């Protein structure tokens, strides 16, 4: 049995980084950048008015100002501003030569002769200066960024319409078990609906990778072997659930070896998910995840998700929030690191969810995140700060 950190290092060390492809920036949300995005221009590209008002010289603001031109956004000014002159200017329009400030229209009045008076003593410049936001050739988005809507706007602003992103790993999902049936069917006595296959499909898709659900495999050596061999052929990662514990029909690890998979670990000191198995084949990386849905959910979060992100070029740490426990939490056995679902209350405290064991998938329903309790520790005290990992 190895520690979670050791298992994590082994899995991450086996990552095979995907090649990149160029795609339309509009469909790039959720993908991961495979190159830095560089600005092809200064932003703003010219000194720009931040307000609707009058562009003039600061030294003249106590005087009556004569309007020489109207400058809407999109128009290039034609007249320079001299002593006691101004141009009526709109937000986003270029500042005319000679002007060093814009008086806000709300702070001015028009005199009977058509000249302008400023009603305040002082003004800010109200100018967005050339290159103030971004300089030409500056990196605006870094390689490895997970693309979000604001990043789409940034790409639009610098003309990056075909960004390079990492290709999606293909992830095969296989559920093993003679008792497992598909969800649209009503289970007979001793049958159980397949929740893992679909949970994993959704988890994979949430990362932006390609999920390839391959159905249920009966607990026979032959069927398991055939399913593994064919999944390895055409996928980057194969996720199997079930068949990794100590039962008479749990042959996944043995069959993996037969299929040419080099098993790197078969037990980890984590609860839930002790029998989690991981191995490498020249064509694919393979996980044998435990059959219980909470175990497979948590092991996906801890090991598979970071691997998928790494293969897509992102190694950032999962988002964690540090908050105090709402109540004491205690456990009897401390030989494994435990991970369990929690709720964040309206008061910003962390409440462990009532969760009976690794088959209790309903326990995960209201969860905002998961927290861990280290090996050797039996109590988390009320008020003690814990790291809530978002799920
Ligand atoms: P196993 O790891 O095959 O011994 O399975 C452990 C437990 O998880 C058993 O109670 C199985 O019935 C249950 N189980 C296995 N696969 C699934 C699945 N795909 N969906 C829901 N429960 C499952
Ligand atoms: Mg089974």
Describe this structure in words.
- This protein is an alpha+beta fold and 391 residues long.
- The chain has four domains: 4-16 and 168-311, MoaB/Mog-like domain (Molybdenum Cofactor Biosythetic Enzyme, Chain A, 3-Layer(aba) Sandwich); 20-43 and 142-166, Molybdopterin biosynthesis moea protein, domain 2 (Alpha-Beta Complex); 48-128, Molybdopterin biosynthesis moeA protein, domain 3, CATH 2.170.190; 320-390, Beta-clip.
- Strand 20 and strand 21 (285-289) form a beta hairpin.
- The protein has helices at residues 4-13, 149-158, 196-207, 221-234, 252-258, 293-311, and strands at 20-22, 37-38, 48-49, 53-56, 66-71, 85-89, 101-104, 108-110, 116-118, 127-128, 139-141, 164-166, 170-176, 180-181, 192-193, 210-217, 237-241, 262-265, 270-271, 277-280, 285-289, 320-324, 329-330, 337-344, 350-352, 369-373, 379-380, 385-390.
- It starts with a helix and ends with a strand.
- Bound molecules: adenosine monophosphate (AMP) and magnesium ion (MG).
Summarize it.
It contains 6 helices and 28 strands. The chain has 391 residues and is an alpha+beta fold. Strands 16-13-17-21-20-18 form a 6-stranded mixed β-sheet, with helices on both faces.
- What is the CATH C level class of the largest domain, in words? Alpha Beta
* Share of helix, binned: 10-25%
Mean pLDDT: 97
Count of helical stretches: 6
Cross-sheet strand order for the largest sheet: 16-13-17-21-20-18
The number of distinct β-strands equals 28
CATH architecture assignment name of the largest domain: 3-Layer(aba) Sandwich
Using the CA coordinates, give the radius of gyration.
31 Å
Main sheet summary: 6 strands, mixed
How many structural units, i.e. domains? 4
Q: What's the shape?
A: elongated
CATH topology of the largest domain: Molybdenum Cofactor Biosythetic Enzyme, Chain A
């Amino acid at each position: 049995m190895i520690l979670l950190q050791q298992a994590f290092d082994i899995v991450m060390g086996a990552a095979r980084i995907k090649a990149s492809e160029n795609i339309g920036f509009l469909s790039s949300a959720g993908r991961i950048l495979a190159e830095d995005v560089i600005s092809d221009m200064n932003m703003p590209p010219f000194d720009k008015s931040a307000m609707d008002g009058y562009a003039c010289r600061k030294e003249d603001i106590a005087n009556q100002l004569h309007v020489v031109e109207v400058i809407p956004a999109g128009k290039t000014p034609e007249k320079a501003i001299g002593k006691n002159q101004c141009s009526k200017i709109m937000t986003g329009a270029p500042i005319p030569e000679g002007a060093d400030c814009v008086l806000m229209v709300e702070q001015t009045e028009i005199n009977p002769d058509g000249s302008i008076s400023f009603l305040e003593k002082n003004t800010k410049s109200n100018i967005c200066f050339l290159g103030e936001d971004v300089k030409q050739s500056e990196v605006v988005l870094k390689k490895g960024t997970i693309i979000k809507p604001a990043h789409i706007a940034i790409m639009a602003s610098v003309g990056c319409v075909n960004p390079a992103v990492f290709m999606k790993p293909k992830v095969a999902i296989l559920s093993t078990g003679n008792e497992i049936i598909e969800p649209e069917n009503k289970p007979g006595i001793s049958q159980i609906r397949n929740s893992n296959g679909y949970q994993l499909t959704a988890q994979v898709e949430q990362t932006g990778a390609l999920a390839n659900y391959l159905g249920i495999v009966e607990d026979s050596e032959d069927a398991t072997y055939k399913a593994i061999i064919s999944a390895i052929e055409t996928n980057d990662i194969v996720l199997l659930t079930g068949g990794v514990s100590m039962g008479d029909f749990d042959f996944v690890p043995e069959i993996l070896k037969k299929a040419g998979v080099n098993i790197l670990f078969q037990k980890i000191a984590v609860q839930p998910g002790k029998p989690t198995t991981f191995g490498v084949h020249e064509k694919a990386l393979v996980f044998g995840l435990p059959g219980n849905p909470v175990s497979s959910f948590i092991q996906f979060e801890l090991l598979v998700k970071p691997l998928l992100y790494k293969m897509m070029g992102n190694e950032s740490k999962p988002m964690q929030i540090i908050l105090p426990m709402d109540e004491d939490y205690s456990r009897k056995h401390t030989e494994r690191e435990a991970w369990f679902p929690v709720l964040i209350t309206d008061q910003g405290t962390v409440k462990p969810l009532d969760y009976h064991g690794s088959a209790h998938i309903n326990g995960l329903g209201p969860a905002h995140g998961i927290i861990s309790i280290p090996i050797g520790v039996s109590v988390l005290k009320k008020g003690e700060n814990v790291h809530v990992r978002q799920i």
